[in-house]
Amino acid sequence: MNILKVLVVNCGSSSVKYTLFEMENEKKIAWGIVECIGLPEACYRRQTIDTAGRRDYVKVTNHIEALELIIKNLLDKKVGSITNKNEIAVVGHRVAHGGIKFSKSVLVTEKVKEDLKEYFTLAPLHNPANYAGIVAIEKMLPEIPSVLVFDTAFHQTMPDYAYMYAIPYEYYERDHIRKYGFHGPSHSYVSQRAAAILDKPLSELKLITVHLGNGSSVAAIEKGKVVDTSMGFTPLQGVVMGTRCGDIDPAIITYILNTYPHQYKNSDALNSFMNKKSGLFGVSGLSADIRTIVEAIKAGNRRAKLAFEMLCYSVKKYISAYYGVLNGVDGLVFTAGIGENSPLVREKICVNLQTLGIEMDLERNNTLSNGEGLVSVPTSKVKIMVIPTNEELMIARESKACLYGRQ
Length: 407
Known about the structure:
By secondary structure, this protein is of the alpha/beta class.
């Protein structure tokens, strides 16, 4: 029997992550990542449902070479998961920014690719790399259709008063400057899982989903639709992140430009300042990794403690605001690398939210590790959940639906 297979590709600036799914049971059968593309330390880590994980140092200079390596491995007679390329029904690409033109997943065409180029400047760390992956797959798998699944699409249900910025209206009309939101596949997946855990239809629930990783965002979801989200025109807005500043007074930028004109001569320097040198890393002076921050706190590092508290406080503010926006909440969901694996962050965020009906069971919170479950006390009005995200599965589902249902 020919079982439908979907290959999900997620290209970063120097990496290609992939997962191959059998969609009959939504089972992943092969997965891996090529990291540090173009660098001497480039490596290829991969695993299949039938083989143990393996890591090799490789020589790859671009995304095409990385994907050639991946496809070759998938076809390998000894350890591969497919016997020929045509077993892949569709390739699903994660794309960060869909702008105003892409409010849902789309099949790749030449017109779609041209439109996508318009949004390189909106997500300079993500979209150009995503595009490189699309071109590479077209070269490697020319007969296989590709679907683009956008981080921004899930958030397009926001009302205009939530997504508009209070700047002259012509900038929205002409340049489409507005809030878009990101991490859509993650927020969508965990909201569906939360409904299953609570054993209620998603259409009857009010949820706040908290995606905490190196990049982080919070979403307010009512009846399965996003009402508001913390990230904005780009993935820079919102809570404190690993290397991103999140919400700041915009006048800080003009002040820095005027004070340090030789250091910040162009937009690239400013983008690096806000996207790569700020956040946990910028405040602590140590790292963007929460694990390093926590260890430094234990050693008495004051700036690490400050960075940690700023992160947790910024998330707490969004949760409190979205509780008011939704007029009550049924479930609070933590997901992604930090959200799933840092009990200390979850505890710090939830402390003193009892007035909102958010009451954490500290023992459950501390003992839940790499799993899915409730971490609230039984009497908590708001159920606190930890749900491992599965963005790749959401992209596979969207790709399949787009291929067969939206052509």
